[in-house]
Design brief:
The chain is an alpha+beta fold. It is 26% helix and 31% strand. It has a three-stranded antiparallel beta sheet with strand order 4-3-7. The chain is globular and about 40 Å long.
Length: 97
């Protein structure tokens, strides 16, 4: 069963079920990730994703102050471009390069 919701990612309409939310540091490292739809749980907005990761308003505001952003991307893009490499080039270890 799917949510039936469609979103625009990179200028293309895609099912929300095929996407995930990613919490990114200003340098590009990924801090957190969550699939947008699992069963009857739907996280359709960046604010909902932040509320999932950080339960208090104070925590969410601190993340924003620290320059953390939330991005929706397709899981296909995640698998093709990122995979297990959550660190940006600056922070990646030599073993990952």
């Amino acid at each position: 069963m799917t949510s039936g919701l469609t979103v625009t990612v990179d200028g293309q309409p895609v099912p929300l079920d095929d996407c995930g939310w990613f919490e990114l540091r200003p340098c590009g490292c990924i801090d957190s990730a969550i699939v947008a739809v699992v069963g009857d749980r739907v996280i359709a907005t960046a604010d909902q994703a932040l509320r999932h990761w950080h339960s208090t308003k104070r925590q969410r505001e601190a993340r924003v102050r620290d320059g953390i952003t939330v991005e929706l991307m397709t899981m296909a893009r995640y698998r093709e471009e990122i995979g297990s490499q959550w660190e940006c080039e600056q922070h990646a270890t030599a073993a990952q390069r």
